[in-house]
Amino acid sequence: MIKSELIARLAEENPNLFQRDVERVVNAVFDEIGDALARGDRVELRGFGAFSVRHRRAREGRNPRTGASVSVKDKHVPFFKTGKELRERVDASAK
InterPro entries from the xrefs (predicted)? Predict the structure, then answer.
Protein backbone atom coordinates (compact mmCIF):
# COMPACT_ATOMS: atom_id res chain seq x y z
CA MET A 1 0.00 0.00 0.00
CA ILE A 2 1.26 3.46 -0.86
CA LYS A 3 0.34 6.74 0.83
CA SER A 4 -2.31 7.71 -1.73
CA GLU A 5 -4.01 4.31 -1.28
CA LEU A 6 -3.98 4.80 2.50
CA ILE A 7 -5.58 8.23 2.12
CA ALA A 8 -8.23 6.87 -0.27
CA ARG A 9 -9.09 3.99 2.06
CA LEU A 10 -9.37 6.26 5.10
CA ALA A 11 -11.57 8.69 3.14
CA GLU A 12 -13.80 5.75 2.11
CA GLU A 13 -14.17 4.56 5.70
CA ASN A 14 -14.97 8.10 6.90
CA PRO A 15 -17.49 9.56 4.44
CA ASN A 16 -18.05 12.55 6.76
CA LEU A 17 -14.50 13.77 6.02
CA PHE A 18 -13.24 15.27 2.78
CA GLN A 19 -10.34 13.48 1.12
CA ARG A 20 -8.21 16.64 1.32
CA ASP A 21 -8.73 16.72 5.11
CA VAL A 22 -7.74 13.07 5.43
CA GLU A 23 -4.64 13.82 3.34
CA ARG A 24 -3.71 16.70 5.68
CA VAL A 25 -4.05 14.44 8.73
CA VAL A 26 -1.95 11.64 7.20
CA ASN A 27 0.73 14.13 6.12
CA ALA A 28 0.72 15.73 9.58
CA VAL A 29 1.24 12.34 11.26
CA PHE A 30 4.09 11.39 8.92
CA ASP A 31 5.69 14.83 9.26
CA GLU A 32 5.58 14.66 13.04
CA ILE A 33 7.15 11.19 13.06
CA GLY A 34 9.91 12.49 10.77
CA ASP A 35 10.45 15.61 12.90
CA ALA A 36 10.63 13.56 16.10
CA LEU A 37 13.22 11.22 14.56
CA ALA A 38 15.23 14.22 13.33
CA ARG A 39 15.31 15.48 16.95
CA GLY A 40 16.54 12.05 18.05
CA ASP A 41 13.28 11.15 19.82
CA ARG A 42 11.64 7.72 19.81
CA VAL A 43 8.08 7.37 18.44
CA GLU A 44 5.99 4.49 19.78
CA LEU A 45 2.60 3.51 18.36
CA ARG A 46 1.18 0.93 20.76
CA GLY A 47 0.30 -2.33 19.05
CA PHE A 48 2.01 -1.22 15.83
CA GLY A 49 5.65 -0.60 16.59
CA ALA A 50 8.34 1.90 17.49
CA PHE A 51 10.49 4.17 15.36
CA SER A 52 13.92 5.17 16.64
CA VAL A 53 17.26 6.41 15.36
CA ARG A 54 20.39 4.25 15.44
CA HIS A 55 23.98 5.34 15.01
CA ARG A 56 26.14 3.54 12.48
CA ARG A 57 29.89 3.94 12.91
CA ALA A 58 32.25 4.78 10.07
CA ARG A 59 33.62 1.73 8.31
CA GLU A 60 35.36 0.48 5.22
CA GLY A 61 32.94 -0.85 2.63
CA ARG A 62 33.34 -2.38 -0.80
CA ASN A 63 32.04 -1.25 -4.14
CA PRO A 64 30.11 -4.35 -5.32
CA ARG A 65 30.85 -3.67 -8.97
CA THR A 66 34.61 -3.11 -8.77
CA GLY A 67 35.51 -4.61 -5.38
CA ALA A 68 37.41 -1.43 -4.47
CA SER A 69 37.46 -0.28 -0.83
CA VAL A 70 35.22 2.66 -0.07
CA SER A 71 35.17 4.76 3.09
CA VAL A 72 31.64 4.93 4.56
CA LYS A 73 31.10 7.84 6.99
CA ASP A 74 29.31 7.45 10.29
CA LYS A 75 25.59 8.22 10.12
CA HIS A 76 22.28 8.04 11.91
CA VAL A 77 19.58 5.87 10.33
CA PRO A 78 15.89 5.37 11.14
CA PHE A 79 14.97 2.00 12.62
CA PHE A 80 11.53 0.38 13.03
CA LYS A 81 10.73 -2.39 15.48
CA THR A 82 7.33 -4.04 15.12
CA GLY A 83 5.00 -4.32 18.07
CA LYS A 84 3.83 -7.65 19.44
CA GLU A 85 0.24 -7.23 18.21
CA LEU A 86 1.37 -6.43 14.66
CA ARG A 87 3.78 -9.39 14.59
CA GLU A 88 1.04 -11.75 15.80
CA ARG A 89 -1.46 -10.35 13.29
CA VAL A 90 0.94 -10.77 10.35
CA ASP A 91 1.93 -14.25 11.50
CA ALA A 92 -1.73 -15.33 11.82
CA SER A 93 -2.58 -14.04 8.33
CA ALA A 94 0.40 -15.89 6.80
CA LYS A 95 -0.86 -19.26 8.04
Answer: Hist_DNA-bd, Histone-like_DNA-bd_CS, IHF-like_DNA-bd_dom_sf, IHF_beta
